[in-house]
């Protein structure tokens, strides 16, 4: 991926599958603490489009006050903030400036 980004002069961002979310951090702490005892079976799931109505079509709004939207966009064309475009719930995550 690094070679391709350099070859085609592109900026690449790789996600960490929501590892930074507070609720995920709390879950990790609970498991690591041993409070759940010995775990012998785990089942997970992941929903991608909130069936049956999808993610909806919310209007553009001002970005959360603790999000530097211009920094988030980086070199991409300027776009209005939209929670679907951003893809992160501002009530459960923290942002950088």
Note down, in words, how this protein is organized.
With 97 residues, the chain is mainly alpha-helical. The chain has a domain at 45-88. It is 28% helix and 0% strand. It has helices at residues 2-7, 22-33, 69-73, 83-86. It is extended, with a radius of gyration of 18 Å. It starts with a helix and ends in an 11-residue tail after the last helix. The model has no long low-confidence stretch (mean pLDDT 80).
Q: Which spans of ≥5 residues are poorly predicted at pLDDT below 50?
A: none
Number of strands: 0
Q: How much helicity do the residues have?
A: 25-40%
Structural classification: mainly alpha
What's the layout of helices and strands?
Layout: H1 2-7, H2 22-33, H3 69-73, H4 83-86
Can you give keywords for this protein?
97 residues
Structure at a glance:
The chain is mainly alpha-helical and 97 residues long. The chain is built from 4 helices and no strands.
